[in-house]
Amino acid sequence: MDYRCSGDFDSFNTIIYGHNMNNGNMFGELSNFKDEEFFDKNKFATIYSKDESYTLDFFAYMIVNADDKIIFDISADPVRFFNYVKKSALNYREPDRDKNVVALSTCSSQSTEKRIVLLANIIKK
Predict the structure, then answer these.
(1) 20 - beta bridge partners?
(2) Residue 2 half-sphere exposure, CB side, CA atoms within 13 Å?
């Protein structure tokens, strides 16, 4: 998790980084969300912490620059953030704009300067 984020997902945008492993471990399967059919069929995931469990409701798949000023801003203006995502996402469905976001980020095989980002609303169980 990005050091600037609170561990309880209270930040507007919690960023979680993972390695893009060739064997599919960690975030090695995030690139599968580029496929529209896969994106449409895989809408949810669960994160378990020591004290809570959370549902991730995926809403966007993007490839962005590693220094993207909006996607990697934990306190981004929500209106600007969601409008940017809607305009820039490769796969997209309308999110709940009243909920916080989790950004799962990993390296892209396209370039060392690119990142795969899968965005989700986070819902406490």
Answers:
(1) 26
(2) 20
Whether 13 contacts 2, CB under 8 Å: no
Percentages helix, strand, coil for the chain, rounded to the nearest 5? Answer: 20, 40, 45
Question: Where are the alpha helices (H) located in 52-104, listed in sequence order?
Answer: 78-88
Asked whether residue 66 carries a pLDDT value surpassing 60, the answer given is: yes
The structure's pTM equals 0.90
Which residues partner with 65 through β-bridges?
114
pLDDT at residue 21, as a whole number? 47
Q: Is the CB of residue 13 less than 8 Å from the CB of residue 120?
A: no
> What 3-state class would DSSP assign to 34?
helix
Gap between the terminal Cα atoms of the chain: 20
Residue with tokens 């912490």: 49
Q: Which two tokens stand for residue 112?
A: 């060392």
Q: What is the DSSP letter of 1?
A: -
The pLDDT assigned to 5 comes to 78
Residues 12-23 pLDDT 10s: 999 887 755 455
